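Now read these lines:
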Amino acid sequence: KEILVEISGTTVTLTCPLPGGTITWMISGTKQSSNEVKYVIENHNSSPTNVSCASGETTYEMYLNARVCENCEELDALAVTGIITADLLITFGVLILVYYFSKGRKGRASAGAGGRPRGQKMQRPPPVPNPDYEPIRKGQREVYAGLEPRGF
């Protein structure tokens, strides 16, 4: 059996597993004036403490390291699952909408830079080659055959 801990806001409630009677609570080595099965710590400051409850010769000890805050809300597993599922559904919905709206625009020609139509770009002749260089053609290497490395 263990000491049961319940946290609500800044209030920590400890429940001793011993049956009723004279129960002595010890918080950080200091005896507390409570003989009840439940001990309530109001405005807990989140500092780690050693807690023990004793009745006769039976003692239960625990190290309490509870983080508390005033505006905390506890979420159960079902609420977290619902939030994640809703987020995924909304994300997939947006993806499907973007896909269907962009699907119809593929065939349309958009105005490019400068607003020129694409047809003029296709009719332009290739650039004039530079007359300073002669291209190497297969089987016609004699133009460059006489070039050898020079020693300076």
Observations:
- The mean pLDDT is 78.
- The beta strands are 4-8, 11-15, 24-27, 30-32, 38-41, 49-55, 58-64.
